[in-house]
Amino acid sequence: MKIFKRGINDKTVYGILMVCFLWYMLHITIKSNVIPGPYETVKRFIALLPGVLSMHLLASFGRIAAAIAVSMLLGVPLGLWIGMNNRGDAIISPIVYILYPLPKIAFLPIFMILLGIEDLSKITLIVTIIIFQILIAVRDGVKEIPKELFYSVSSLGVSGVGIYRHLIMPAVMPKLISGLRISLGISISTLFFAENFATTYGIGYYIMNAWTMVDYLDMFSGILGLSLLGLFLLTALDIVERKLCPWIFL
């Protein structure tokens, strides 16, 4: 808990206050229940959180966490391999360059037909977004390591797994975390879309269901929950970065 609190710094508090100020100004300018005020929304959010809202947030968090885990298990080893192996890079990278720019969200109907309408199709959709970020970040991180460093660690008697532990992974880690940071925002947006199809739990479903019911206060409570979910994930990633890459903060 203390570690997480350190991730919530003054800049985060400043950002929250500024967003709430702009939100309130928009509320009093429009003068419509379409955009409820921050106070009313936070009050409603606190009331909903222990019950229905927490279930939707946990469902969404579970899908993103599973997608990140699968993407890491597949993307990191593959990125290390093509980063260290020029022939592997020549085989894999052209395929990545063709698939990476494609709007993955268009494949959701195909995933739902092949994998079913439950969580597996939605997690797979997010994986297809995150894994390319991870793969490219890891590959580039390996290729940017000067050859002289490999010679240096070899001269010290380090080889095999030791090279990965003491040289490659520390060099790759900052790029890997940056890639995850970028892909998280895209993944949350994609999840919001995916949860509108054949889903009964998920913050995306909750927001759109409140919109169809013309319950704008609940809708904004869901949007607030989605924002806090993103803030939690990014803050957790910042904490991981400080633990695994302390040298970049010196």
TrEMBL record:
PROSITE patterns per UniProt: ABC_TM1
Name of this chain's protein: ABC transporter permease
Short name of one Pfam family: BPD_transp_1
Locations listed in the record: Cell membrane
Main location: membrane
Domain ABC transmembrane type-1 stretches: 57-241
Protein keywords: Cell membrane, Membrane, Transmembrane, Transmembrane helix, Transport
Membrane-crossing residue ranges in chain numbering: 12-30, 64-84, 90-113, 120-138, 150-168, 180-207, 219-240
Family statement drawn from the similarity comment of this UniProt entry: Belongs to the binding-protein-dependent transport system permease family.
